[in-house]
Amino acid sequence: MANNFHVAIVGGGLCGLALAVALRTRSVPFTIYELRSSFTELGAGINIGPNALAAFNLIDKDLGEAVYGLCTRNLPGKEDVWFQVRLGAPSGKHEDAELIAELMSPPTGNMTLSRNELLQKLAEKAGLGKARFNKKLVGLDEDEDGVVLRFADGTQDRASVVIACDGIHSSARRIVLGPDHPAAKAVYTEAVVYRGVLPMDRLSAAVGYESAHMSTFYLHSNGYVILYPIDGGRQVSTGFWVWQKGAWQHNEWMLPKQSKEFHNAFRDWGDTVHKIMDLMSDPPVFATHYHGVQPDSMSKGRVCLIGDAAHSMPPHQGQGGAQAMEDAYVIGELLANIAQQQTSREQIDAAFEAYEKVRVERANQVKDTSVDAFDFWTGFWDDNVSDEQIRQFLKAQDKRFHWIWNDDIAAQAERAIQIMQDSLAK
To answer: Where is the FAD-binding domain (predicted)?
Structure first.
């Protein structure tokens, strides 16, 4: 590089490692600071839609091809299907688990893989030598030459800029905003999910071959059930979503061994869902949170928030990871641009301003529609759902997702670079 520009990436999850791959591909020096002792990812599966795959390909072409190769897809002949929609109980006009509609998302359909498998591929591409583990961020001190990162173990390090990718529990967000700022912490969505991973052979025996091997929603008035194959079709990621109104009364967001509560929450559902439930072994429950209050800016000085640290969202549209990948690509392009020369504070300010102008509005819109998507899925239920209601549901689904899936991700970065250059030319 032409100068000593160095990027500190706080957080070694999917977002942080994707940014690391983007920077490594573009020869921008960086260091990853990860809270845990190794790269690990909580949760079972992740959905890769059209915009996420586009972002992976733009971050690094080889990465995109590797992710594509790892993914499990729907059955042959149905690869363009995103999800099948089935009823979670019998209705006046339809049988239990009857196939009501197929939601389409060409060209990817619903590509899926385990979160940890994706994380390990990203770590391989990023390079383990670039990581520092057991680093809990406790402070950020900026001066005219850069930022000093302070960690709980008493160590410090310095960087030109800090990109905070430390997720929904972001320490960097609280440090930048202040612990008492209303936007510093995520808030409860009043919905919970019981999660599990099932063997494909057992699920197939319970609900039938096609239902088990296709990404599927089961819908009802108080929640929805989502299933999709992972691990090459050997396992199925399951999520049983239901409203749980009021405040979350626990310090932890995850409670183990919730079989009694689980069966009570879904007692009014149909036989097919109950067959799936019988395969679940005392599942944990997760309280869903998101950043319901947003700050005026996602950057302050030499520090910028991206991914879930910036705009965490519930997964009702499968977009949390996708938006993080879009962030990583755009900010990676901007940082590569300013790292090509002796980098000034003005360039850093212009880069972060351009990132915000291009990414924040879109990501927040996806976040907001992800929140109300729970109502979208549960609102479809009608004891006498008509063919016209189904047609309207499909139209609404297309309207809801088309702008998310089909945005030009490369054009986002081009627009951001132009905004940055125009700002510096003034």
So the answer is: 6-368
pLDDT tens column, 245-291: 999 999 999 999 999 999 999 999 999 999 999 999 999 999 999 99
Nearest of 81, 400, 378, 319 to residue 211 by alpha carbon: 81
> 59-113 pLDDT, tens per residue?
999 999 999 999 999 999 999 999 999 999 999 889 999 999 999 999 999 999 9
* Mean pLDDT across the chain: 96
Cβ count within 10 A of residue 333: 23
* Interval 125-168: pLDDT, tens: 999 899 999 999 999 999 999 999 999 999 999 999 999 999 99
Q: Can you tell me which residue has the tokens 């000093």?
A: 148
CB 72 within 8 Å of CB 229: yes
> What tokens does 320 get?
């949390």
Note the pTM of the prediction, 2 decimals. Answer: 0.97
Among candidate residues 205, 198, 200, 168, the one with its CA nearest the CA of residue 183: 168
What are the residues whose beta carbons fall under 8 Å from the beta carbon of 76, sequence distance 6 or more? none
3-state secondary structure of 393: helix
CA–CA gap between residue 380 and residue 372 (Å, rounded):
13
- Collect all residues with Cβ–Cβ distance below 8 Å to 39 and sequence separation of at least 6: 12, 17, 119, 120, 123, 131
Q: Which of 165, 163, 116 is nearest to 308 (CA)?
A: 165
The total of other beta-carbon atoms located within 10 Å of residue 408's CB is: 11
Looking at beta carbons, which pairs linking 372-375 to residues 24 or more positions away fall under 8 Å? 373/314, 373/316, 373/317, 373/400, 374/189, 374/191, 374/224, 374/241, 374/243, 374/314, 374/316
* Cα→Cα distances 38→7, 94, 158, 225, 296, Å: 20, 49, 22, 32, 34
Tell me the C-alpha distance between 382 and 219, whole Å: 10
Type of residue numbered 352? F
Contact 365, 400 (CB under 8 A): no
Task: Map out the domains of the chain with their CATH numbers.
Answer: 7-76+111-185+293-425 (3.50.50.60), 187-290 (3.30.9.60)
The single-letter DSSP state of residue 129 is: G
